[in-house]
Amino acid sequence: MKTKWLSIAMAAASLVLVSCHTAKEAVAVNENDIAGEWNIVEIQGKPVQAESQPFIGFDVKESRIYGYSGCNRLMGALNFSSPNKIVLGDMASTMMACPDLNTERSVLDALASVRSMAFSGKDLLLYGAGKSPVMRLQKHFEVVPLSRLNGEWTVVAVNGTALPAGMENVPSLNLEIAANRVSGNSGCNRLSGEIRHDTAVENSISFANVASTRMACSDMDTENKVLAALNSVCAYGMLANGHLALMAEGSTVVLELERSK
Questions:
Q1: What is the Cα–Cα distance from 121 to 143, expressed in whole angstroms?
Q2: What is the pLDDT of residue 144?
Q3: Are 31-139 and 146-259 in the same CATH fold?
Q4: So what CATH class is 31-139?
Q5: C-alpha R_g of the chain
Q6: Rounded distance, CA 133 to CA 118, Å?
Q7: Domain residue spans of the chain
Q8: pLDDT level of residue 27 (50, 70, 90 thresholds)
């Protein structure tokens, strides 16, 4: 009889330990914890496979959500009723026609069902009425002080396409933050210009009055793409791989840079 009661007591203690462990890991998620942009990496437990990475951004100051669903831009209202509880309302999107709308439909359906959220490590999980997450998000980029950008960077990708290996003149940028100057190599010619930063926007950066030398090269395609991308930049962020992302409107990464060695 004593053995039986001992077993029951041990089982009860085990349940208490499990309950305490669960409670300890259930950290409340507040609106400031999710501020910024997140890549959508899973929907209904399945990895997202799309040509263009869908993402959502939480603008907690303006109580709005925005992003890209795989084809169209999306926007809506962001409401917090309590920690961990979230409602996304008044969802709308642009109306472009795309060859594959499956990812877009999945993104919009999942977002419409969201009621709560929780962290799993650094990933943000969005839940509907069930116990399984309807969406898994990973931080799109980290905002760092502008001064961290100072120095020389090598361009590794333009408009999401990696530059070919073995280029004779690899494009590079030298960011002189204190002097508000940019210089470098666009793949053929030398370039120089001004760096501008809107103090009202934390990760704002743009390049003005960019000029370059006028040498003619056998491959001007990369050069033209680099210069066009540079002129479209309006924001920056540090990617998970340590690279610097220079982004155009809509947080589209147009230049990916690696710190020069």
A1: 19
A2: 92
A3: yes
A4: mainly beta
A5: 23
A6: 9
A7: 31-139, 146-259
A8: low
For 60-189, list the strands marked E by DSSP. Answer: 64-68, 73-82, 85-93, 116-120, 123-127, 133-139, 151-158, 161-162, 172-176, 181-185
Query: By C-alpha distance, which of 37, 35, 34 is closest to 245?
Result: 37
For residues 140 and 247, give the distance between their C-alpha atoms in angstroms, rounded to a whole number.
12
- For residue 200, name the pLDDT band (cuts at 50, 70, 90): confident
User: According to CATH, what is the number of the domain 146-259?
Assistant: 2.40.128.270
Amino acid at 47: P
Separation of alpha carbons 210 and 161, rounded Å: 23
Residue with tokens 């959220």: 117
Question: How many whole angstroms from its chain centre is CA 191?
Answer: 28
The string of pLDDT tens digits covering residues 122-176 is 899 999 999 999 999 998 888 899 999 999 999 999 988 899 888 888 999 999 9
Strand-pair category, 172-176 with 181-185: antiparallel
User: Who has greater pLDDT, 49 or 255?
Assistant: 255
**CB neighbourhood size of 41 (10 A):** 15
Q: How far is CA 49 from CA 43, 124, 141, in A?
A: 10, 19, 20
Record the pTM.
0.62
